[in-house]
Structure formats: C-alpha cells, structure tokens
Design goal:
This protein is mainly α. It is built from 15 helices and five strands. The structure holds tryptophanyl-5'AMP. The site of tryptophanyl-5'AMP has 25 residues, from strand 1, helix 1 and helix 9.
C-alpha cells in the first residue's frame, strides 16, 4: 500500500444545492474549475449534506436543487468526461471518513470557526433561533468539508474567498491525521482563488443566493437588466452632469473589471468626465452580462429538456467518485490499524 506516495495535483471542490447558481459562483470559482479540468484530475461535488446543515427543514427541495446545479455546471462547460462530477450523498465513504476525522478534531477547532458564526447570525432572527440553527451537523460543517476534500486527497481547492477559513481548517485536520498516525498521507489542501474572489451583489453586500441581490446564470435577459438597474453606484454623484468617481462606485465598477481592460478604461473615462450617467452605464453593463451569459443560457435550456441525460451523467460520476473514495477510506483505515474490523 502507498501510504506516503504523493498523488499528483488533485482538484476537489463543491457547491451546495440551495438554488440556482449566480455570477459570483461563476467568476469566483467556476472559471478556475473550467481551467483545471483540462489540466488535472478534478473532482466536483454537489454537496447535498452541506445544504442540509442549514436547510434541514427543506430537505425535500434538495434533489431538485441538485439537478439545477448540475444543469448550471454542464451549461458553463464542466465536462463529465474530463472531471468527475458527482453528488456527495451518493458517496457514503465520505460520511465514514467524516466520522473518523471528527474523532481526531478538537472541539474548540469547530467552535471557533468564524464562517459558521456568521452563518448562524445571518440565518437567525434572534438568540433562540440562533440556538435552534446551530445544530451538531452545522458545527461539523468544516469537518465534513475536510472529508470531502481528503476523500479524494485533493491538494488544490478552487473556491471563493469566503471559504478560506474552511480550507485552513482542512489543512489542520490533514496535518493532525498525518501527525497522529505518523504518515504523510493526506496532502494539505490549498485554496485557489480567481481574480474575483468575492463578487458583490447589486446591494453592495456579498452576492448570495438567499440575499435577493444576485444575478443568476439562468435568469432571463430582462431579469438581469432589472437587477443591474438597482445596483448601488457612486453615492456622492447626485446629478447626471456631476462627474462620477469610479473608486466610489460600489457595484458596477468592480463588475466591469471582470470584462477586461478595454471596457474598464472606457467606463472610467466616460464616468469621470460625466460623459455617461449611472443609468446608462448600468444598462450597458447589463447588456455585457447578458451577452456573456447568452450561450450558457441557451445550452442550459437544451440540457434541461433532457432530464435522463443529466441523471446518467451524475450516475456515471457517482460511480467514479465512489471507487476513489473507497480506496482512500480503506487506506486511511489501514493507516489507523482498523481495517480488520471491516470484515
Ligand atoms: P457555496 O455553495 O456557498 O459556494 C460555492 C462556491 O462559489 C463561491 N462563491 C463566490 N465566489 C465569489 N463571490 C461570491 N459572491 C460567491 N458566492 C459563492 C464560494 O466561495 C464557493 O467556492 N462550503 C462550500 C461548499 C463545499 C466545498 C467542499 C467547497 C463543501 N465541501 C469541498 C470546496 C471543497 C460552500 O458552501 O460553497
């Protein structure tokens, strides 16, 4: 058995099936996935157990959302022949690894996770609800995420900035396993960010599925234009004839950056000379986004008309992922000296 053999760069990442994806997912993570699937062995997971950590009451909605995410991924070009695309709960070995990792993870590590504290605060209206929300499963969120990554011995994890603390956690867990059992088995996974690691929504807060501030990949052109219209611009610019300040423009200006130097240079010149007003500037941005998303939306519609195909793609990926996670689990058990109990 190869308990110390290094695996070549392995990519692992995931998304929660809590609704359709938005351009924050795309520019914050998926563009790196598209790049990595060409170069490395890549595992992309629809993490339905993670969705349950906060949406346990809406469990019945999760399977539909799994399908929505699969459609979004396939529409942007995630290729099930290149990458392994699968559903977390179809790989029960991840749950077993999560259990094993939970045994070696000190309680105070999970309790001090900043991202979880933010999650509970945002989801709960008051103290009582916060207590209700903070379940045992939610507390274990970063341990489960570590198991997701380590089950595939992932070394590079393309994610947005909000996942940074979870990745630090996963590294600590990998290191702790290696130290306790005297091996160099699990790689310490590093995050990989895009040029847009945190995209703001139209209200200036982080773009999020549940905040009503997002532009979804699958929105209609009209929806996109309507949402962009609401985007917060330069709050100090009162009249159309006032010169604008791109450095004070909260949403459109950072969004323009995604689309390259040429357009940003033009916007800067026109905005700061009062050549263009915020209303027109936002309409133009909406047009650019719609143009970019056009082919993705078209592909998505075609795929949505063929539910069997999506199901087959996931079944294919689930089997591949399961074979790999099985291998890791049995190696981890062997390292722990537990393998005999499995027979
Ligand atoms: P989730 O489902 O919230 O988001 C999926 C990915 O999209 C990125 N993202 C953004 N990036 C930039 N700007 C935004 N506004 C924005 N919104 C979302 C997220 O950073 C993420 O990369 N805990 C993870 C899911 C997970 C996971 C894993 C990720 C579970 N297991 C293993 C990697 C590896 C999450 O909740 O992502």
């Amino acid at each position: 058995m190869t308990t110390t053999a290094k695996v070549a760069t392995r990519i692992m990442s995931g998304m929660r099936p809590t609704g359709r994806l938005h351009i924050g997912h795309y520019f914050g993570a998926l563009i790196n996935w598209l790049d990595f699937q060409e170069k490395y062995d890549s595992y992309f997971s629809i993490v339905d157990w993670h969705a349950l950590t906060t949406k346990y009451q809406a469990s019945r909605e999760i399977p539909d959302n799994v399908r929505e995410i699969a459609l979004d991924w396939l529409a942007v070009g995630i290729d099930p022949e290149r990458a392994t695309v699968y559903v977390q709960s179809a790989v029960p070995e991840i749950a077993e690894l999560h259990l094993l990792l939970s045994m070696i993870t000190p309680q105070n590590w999970v309790e001090r996770e900043p991202t979880l504290k933010d999650m509970v605060r945002m989801l709960a209206a008051d103290e009582k609800e916060a207590r209700d929300r903070a379940t045992y499963g939610l507390l274990g969120y970063p341990v489960l995420m570590s198991a997701d990554i380590l089950a595939f011995r992932g070394s590079l994890v393309p994610v947005g900035k909000d996942q940074q603390s979870h990745l630090e956690f996963a590294r600590d867990v990998a290191r702790r396993f290696n130290t306790i059992y005297g091996v160099d088995y699990f790689p310490e996974p590093q995050p990989k960010f895009t040029a847009t690691p945190l995209l703001k929504g139209v209200d200036g807060q982080k773009m999020g599925k549940s905040y009503g501030n997002d532009i979804k990949l699958a929105d209609t052109e009209e929806d996109t234009l309507k949402k962009i219209k609401q985007a917060v611009t330069d709050r100090t610019r009162i009249a159309r004839s006032d010169p604008g300040h791109t450095d004070l423009c909260e949403v459109p200006w950072p969004m323009y950056q995604i689309f390259g130097k040429e357009i940003t240079a033009r916007v800067k010149e026109e905005c700061e000379s009062a050549g263009i007003g915020c209303v027109d500037c936002k309409a133009r941005l909406g047009g650019i986004i719609n143009e970019f998303l056009g082919p993705i939306r078209e592909r998505r519609q075609k795929l949505a008309a063929d539910p069997d195909k999506v199901r087959q793609i996931l079944e294919y990926g689930n089997a591949k992922a399961r074979a790999e996670a099985k291998k890791t689990l049995s190696e981890a058990l062997e390292i722990m000296g537990m393998i005999r109990w499995r027979y």
